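Continuing the batch. This is chain 6 of the set; chains 1 through 5 are on the previous pages. Same settings as before, nothing changed between runs. Recording input and output for traceability.
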Amino acid sequence: MRNLYEDVGFLDRRCYDLYELSEDILMEHAASALVREVKSKDPKSVLIVAGPGNNGGDGVAAARQLLGECEVRLLMPYGAKSEMCKKQLDRFFACGGSLDENLKEADVVIDALFGSGLSKPLREDAIKLVEALNDLGGYKIACDFPTGIDAKGNPLPVAFRADVTVTMGGLKLALFGDGAKDYVGRIEVADLGVSQELYEIESEYKLLEKDDLKPPYRTKRNVNKGDFGHLAVVAGEKEGAAIMAGLAALRYGAGLVTIVRNEPFVAPYELMHATTLPPKCNALAVGMGLGLEYSDAEFKELVLACKAPMVIDADLFYSDKILELLKRDNIVLTPHPKEFASLLKLTGIADVDTKEVQKDRFGYALAFSKRYPKAVLILKGANTIVASDHNLYINPLGSNVLAKGGSGDVLTGLVGALLAQGYDPLEAAIQATLAHAVASQRIDLANYAAIPSDLIAQLGRL
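Output for chain 6:
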């Protein structure tokens, strides 16, 4: 788990105050990180397009450090305006460098135009410049942020497409917005003269990593199925969703899984079937494919009467029945963006559509978390968000394999399995999203071909 920050300016200032490191020293280290990435490709030519501010200053300093190593072409279409950028340009000239005026192909292309300071849409000339850079060949490096990505992680309206983003000092939250996913490439953090341990402080925002995954391995030998919990999965009009959730839960360690439905249906032999809630269930999963099958009285008897930890998905995010469940402190909610937009409206937090949710995923997840601090939210997406009591945990490990019906039902089953095994709701949510994402990476099929059963099969190989 790594710290994430909305902005690292305050961390830079800590370096000035605590470690007596100047802005100049930090910039030289930022440039050195860019140079290391360039040299890893052993290029004959490097094109650096630098902006007028300190992000451009990083690029100009990198250009100076590369002089004599390879052919260096530096473009500054907006000149140098910040004091540090001007100073770096003077140093570049003193070392024999000169400015170019035209974009040309190069082995490596560095975007050091605007960085993380973008607060309004790019002007027409900047849009054309970014599009021209994207059309060039070569290995693409973004300095700190791909130009065009705003503070919420959205392209405004286009952005530089990087193979790698060398971000300065610490990881920024916006780099993990869904809108940034196709632009940032691999993300590397540049140390700025001190180690990450000295540079960073604790943050309420965390980035989840593969090493954080801890599957529910069984360490005791003298056990029975009851030791690993009993999950009840409520089935509705589309019982297939409940079956997928149930099979995923069984695969991920639940000792027993019962599909509950008020009508008979054929379930896989691994799953139990009942028409009423099992008296000793340890967790409940509800919402997937539920439809309108249950009356208010049946819902009260089946769901509201259950005091066990609960994972909620799908159809319940369109029903005011969710409001009663939100009063609890042992629930996990797993909406996709459209369902989350409905949930925000039902709770009176915001009246927005799916597109608006996606533009500010972090903001709306935090707003929900602050209103319902005891609930755990999993907001599904290209970078899944787990939100709980003012804290955000971002899971960037998912793949486009998961963009298929039924994948969300598998995730619900994973959360339910862990709840049944005694995990607290936050840990169940974090571990379930990690298992879900890592399993998707392990599927050895064309990315368009995987189906939920392939995902479930990989859970046993984590």
